[in-house]
What we know:
By secondary structure, this protein is mainly alpha-helical. It folds into two domains: about 1-160, no CATH class; about 230-420, Orthogonal Bundle (MetI-like fold). It contains 17 helices and two strands.
Amino acid sequence: MGNLVIAAALLLLLGFAYQQGFARSLSLAAEARKEGRRLHSRPRYHGTLVAIWVLLPTLLVLGLWALLETSALRALIVGMLPPEVAGLEGRQLDSAIARIRALASGYGVAGEVADYEQAAAEHLSLIQNLAFLLVLAAAAGLGLLALFAAKRRISLALRARDHVEKAVRILLMLCSAVAILTTAGIVLSLFNESIRFFSFVNPIDFFFGEIWNPGFATTGSAAIGRYGLLPLLWGTVMVAVIAMLVALPVGLMTAIYLSQYAPHKVRTVVKPVIEILAGIPTIVYGFFALVTVGPFLSALGAAIGVDIRSTSALTAGMVMGIMLIPFISSLSDDILRQVPLALRDGSLGLGATQSETIRRVLLPAALPGVVGAFLLAVSRAIGETMIVVMAAGNSPVLRLNPAEPVSTVTVTIVNQLTGDSDFAGPQSLVGFALGLTLFAITLLLNILALFIVRRFREQYD
């Protein structure tokens, strides 16, 4: 509720600031028009600039409180605890603080509530309400002061449009920086934890090992078990290849039919139906693979004399391919429809058939988009978890037969990080090494895609 109140108050303040700046600039423009003069910027830019000036100090106050609230309230709670409880350390102290915060928030706690907990919770609730009101008042007060100062700065010569555009550029740069820093933080966290893992396991044994049999070890002790990546990597590649063998031809042919052959009425019905596949949760696909596709493939194999396990790379790959069809078909359809009509009409005018036009003109012209759709589907296939958990068999053994159970990198990450992990031994840290491996594979795929797209564009520029 507190966040909603802050958001509503902030929106009201910004709306009021915009209206004040807009009205002030209109009045100046009316007076200047009598003298044959005019504003440098339109009134909406002045209103936007005033709103920006009001927003900055308001966000500064709210941001400082968001940074300091947790530590300040923690120190306050510790000061209200009895000496024997305040002297606790680690998880015991955190548990005591969490109980008081839960009571203050109105949530129940397990077990009997002590008198000191109830008193501390009531005091904490009062302090939180007062602090919230003070922070809200401080933010509103600074915002109103900024509004008063901003209104006084409005003049005919004020280059409000330039200031607003500069603020927008700074905002766009900050958004880009957030994306870049987030990626860098993920990579650094994976890299640091992977270095810790490789202090237990030799990198050569990890990247070139053929046996996956993880054990348990404590901090500073030697690793127990075998951590060979090849069975997991091969299982990931096998499932992804099977999925793409299903999704790529079906999705691409579907896109060609919808964009080149299908009547408008058929297209308006078929395309939304296909895109529904993208909205089905992956757990549903996994259940479908487990109870329908797997037994069907097993029965089909028995009928033709081939041993196909119900849970296998083939089952997981086929169902994953069905899931990826809308990714390829929708993107490829949009790309094919964006190819200039002059290319198609010119080919048909020279006597080419429609199929020849598609093969020799439309598909080459749409190659960058098709490659992008293909790589998006590959990345999704490599990172998919739930379908493989339920349908692949979770057997980390290096085998070439797709009809046998396999395991993938994502499934193994889930297995190693599920449960009470202290991240002190290789059995938990291996998840970060596997994640870093997946990141490297995705990066290589993106580099390959850029190479293909640039080479193609050079030929058609």
